[in-house]
Amino acid sequence: MGYEWEKDINWVVHTKDNKMFIMRDHNWSFAAWEIARLNKQIKSKSLVIHVDSHLDDVADGVRVKNLKTANTKDEIIEVARSYDRSLGEVSPSSIMHIDNFIWGSLARGTIEEVIYVSRDTQDVNTLESMRASEDVESLYYLSELPSDCNYLTTRFTSIDSFLSHFSESFFKEYVSNRSVILDLDLDVFNNSDSKSDLFPDDKVREYITRLFQLYPWDLITIAISPDFCGGINEAEHLFSIAREIMEIDLNTMHKLV
User: Fold this and answer.
1) Which residues sit opposite 117 in a β-bridge?
2) How would you classify the pairing of strands 46-51 and 254-255?
């Protein structure tokens, strides 16, 4: 059985109230965040909870063509477009990718703090580490951030550690008066990048339920990421659990592009 999102890298749908965006590939989170800010659903300098197998914090997102001049929904959509990695072509330069969209929104001032919940073995690209490197490229990336940017990061290596740290009351206090986004990549429930090694269903249900109920999120973005879930069927299985818990009806959702 084929799924509508299976081979369409531009598959993005959203609820009527624009509070939830679901996408095949994660670069479209950029579009969701920027459109939400354009519509005044979130404020600038928002907090993102990034729950993903990967950090997706590659700093060259600041180089994306027309990144800072995009001021309409259609212009933002064009900036968010990526390329089909399955074709085996060399990655074009200056475009949005599945791993650099966070820095794209940092450069626009839409987000300013990210709590990373990821098993990724890489280190987060913090302002401090990039300044300390004195690398020409790193200094360029930093120069593309807003002059008043105070990019904050916190790192948790598992959903358990994140949820153990933040109770609902503590998280609400931590958020304060900021807008807050839950950015969930379903590949976080796969222990491998190259094969299928999914969490047990009961743990997937537990984690999605607890994340969903932690806070009345201003915006939720969900990436299906079949390339990293172990396959199409595995991705659909995880997606079906998320749909059940979050009461998602795809028939009532609207296409973004």
Assistant:
1) 51, 156
2) unpaired
| Cβ-based neighbours of 94, under 8 Å, separated by 6 or more | 63, 64, 65
Residue type for position 34: E
Q: Is the dihedral of CA 233, 234, 236, 241 positive or negative?
A: positive
CA distance 23 to 101: 14
pLDDT in tens, 45-89: 999 999 999 999 999 999 999 999 999 999 999 999 998 887 766
> HSE of 237 in the Cβ direction (CA atoms, 13 Å)?
17
DSSP result, 99-115:
TSHHHHHHHTTSEEEEE
Q: Residue type for 162, please? A: F
The token pair at 163 is: 């949820």
Phi and psi at 187, nearest 5°, equal: -70, -5
90: which DSSP letter? P
Per DSSP bridges, beta strands 180-185 and 46-51 are: parallel
Residue 149: C-alpha distances to residues 100, 204, 224, 254 (Å):
18, 35, 30, 34
Q: How large is the greatest C-alpha to C-alpha distance in the chain, in angstroms?
A: 51
For residues 226 and 236, give the distance between their C-alpha atoms in angstroms, rounded to a whole number: 8
Please name the amino acid found at residue 54.
H
Mind listing the pLDDT tens digit for each residue in 64-76? 999 999 999 999 9
State the first-to-last Cα distance of the chain, in angstroms, to the nearest integer.
Answer: 23
DSSP 8-state code for residue 175: H
Q: Which residue has the tokens 């222990």?
A: 191
- The token pair that represents 73 in the structure block: 């929904």
pTM for the complete prediction? 0.97
